[in-house]
Amino acid sequence: CSPNLEQINHMLNLAFKENENYENLIFHSDQGWQYQHYSYQERLKEKKITQSISRKGNSLDNGLIEDYIYYYNNKRIKEKLKGLTPASYRSQSLLVG
């Protein structure tokens, strides 16, 4: 499921409920269309939040999250998935299907 603007606004609403002080806050994202949307950028400006966007095609800008996603999908073993990682489980189910 790809994020849409409604989901992104909901996420911002939840974040804004949790915190009142946004001074010196930097909000980093990839170059997804929703993060470049005028209404999204205006909401950040209203709270005086600095927006940071990754450079195109440069996963190093998102190094920490890229590492986490790799771990989450390829290293993390889930008991619910019969002791497999999500990637292994998905590969195995494709072979059977």
Brief synopsis:
This protein has 97 residues and is mainly α. It contains five helices and two strands.
Describe it for me?
This protein is elongated. A two-stranded parallel sheet has the order 1-2. The longest helix is centred in the N-terminal third of the chain and has 14 residues. The chain is mainly alpha-helical. It has five helices and two strands; from the N terminus they run αβααβαα. InterPro entries: Integrase_cat-core, RNaseH-like_sf, RNaseH_sf, Transposase_IS3/IS150/IS904. This is Integrase catalytic domain-containing protein. Pfam families: rve, rve_2.
Series of H and E elements: HEHHEHH
Average pLDDT rating:
84
Strand order of the largest sheet: 1-2
What is the helix content?
A: 40-55%
Largest sheet: 2 strands, parallel
Total domain units: 2
In terms of DSSP E residues, the strand content is 5-15%
Tally of extended strands? Answer: 2
Overall outline: elongated
Uncertain segments: none
Any idea what the radius of gyration is? 18 Å
**N-to-C span:** 22 Å
Q: What structural class results from the helix and strand content?
A: mainly alpha
Question: What's the tally of helices?
Answer: 5
Domain Integrase catalytic: 6-59, 65-94
GO molecular function: nucleic acid binding
Pfam families: rve, rve_2
GO biological process, one term: DNA integration
